[in-house]
Design brief:
The chain is an alpha+beta fold and 266 residues long. It folds into 2 domains: 191 residues, Nucleic acid-binding proteins (OB fold (Dihydrolipoamide Acetyltransferase, E2P)); 60 residues, Arc Repressor Mutant, subunit A. Helix content is 37%, strand content 25%. It has 8 helices and 12 strands. Strands 1, 5, 6, 7, 8 and 9 form a 6-stranded mixed β-sheet that branches. The chain has a 3-stranded antiparallel β-sheet with strand order 2-3-4. It has a 3-stranded antiparallel β-sheet with strand order 10-12-11. Helix 1 packs across helix 3 and helix 3 packs antiparallel against helix 5. The longest helix is centred in the middle third of the chain and has 26 residues. The radius of gyration is 22 Å and the shape is elongated.
């Protein structure tokens, strides 16, 4: 399976987030060119010379740590890992216990000046939305991020040998000291990420998954519905689908309710 074979898949996802740019972690880590836009939004110039106001990242959650101004989560992709600031209200229907590594998550984030930072960039990325995702979601994101990066690297390469250069690309060239060797290295990182993608496995069967959760996590009274939701969210199953599946399992005499809020295998 090549990334070209999946172009329809990732474009359908990307179109839902027109303002959000898919960026690999190595790009985010290296970006330190912070500017103020006329609309007063914070903007970062990327390595490939793109104005970045909002990003879209999907990868493996590797850590979740409490912090003073919000919790810090770390997300990894095939090119590295990066930390993000997560404020409590951002979780929406999720809870902190839902975000227990390892699992795939998808976030959108925006940059802001971090005056307390000790690093050179002084930039921190604040999460705006957060949801649990699947490996298939991660693979589609890799394709989107790789294609976006490679397209912009080609523009940057052409501009290195041209006098007619877009201002943002010219600024990125000067700030990041871009040379042909760097562009080649960045392109190789994109190819490395694409090589992680494998043929998708069989789709998750909601009924089998929920029966497995009930079997593996039930106590003497069975398992509470909230706990079923907690485990099913880690497989990126929507709560409404889980609720309907449990109803079907009850009607099919696969499970029963020994007490309000609990279900148990028959």
């Amino acid at each position: 399976m090549t990334h070209k074979d999946n172009s329809k898949n990732y474009f359908s996802v990307a179109e839902l987030l027109p303002a959000y740019i898919p960026l690999f972690s190595f790009e985010i880590e290296k970006m330190d060119y912070l500017v103020k836009m006329p609309d007063k939004e914070t903007c970062v110039i990327s390595l490939a010379g793109h104005n970045v106001k909002k990003i879209w990242v999907t990868g493996a959650l590797t850590s979740y740590e409490p912090g003073r101004q919000g919790d810090i989560i770390r997300i990894a992709d095939p090119t590295g890992a990066v930390s993000f600031l997560l404020k409590p209200h951002t979780l929406d229907i999720l809870e902190q216990n839902d975000l227990t590594p390892p699992l795939f998550i998808s976030i959108t984030a925006s940059p802001e000046k971090n005056f307390s930072s000790n690093n050179n960039s002084g930039i921190r990325w604040v999460i705006e939305t957060c949801k649990i995702s699947t490996k298939e979601d991660r693979d589609a994101w890799i394709i989107a991020a790789a294609d976006f990066l490679l397209e912009n690297l080609q523009k940057m390469k052409s501009s290195l040998h041209s006098k007619d250069v877009e201002p943002t690309i010219r600024d990125a060239q000067k700030h990041y000291h871009i040379q042909d060797e760097q562009l080649k290295f960045y392109a190789e990182l994109a190819e490395k990420a694409l090589n992680v993608i494998k043929e998708p496995g069989p789709p998750v069967d909601p009924g089998k998954l929920i029966l497995s959760i009930i079997k593996n996590h039930s106590g003497p009274r069975g398992i509470h519905l909230d706990d079923i939701y907690k485990y099913s969210r880690r497989e990126a199953l929507p709560d409404d689908l889980v609720k309907d599946t449990i109803r079907n399992l009850v009607s099919e005499d696969e499970v029963y309710q020994p007490a309000p809020g609990y279900v148990k295998l028959l």
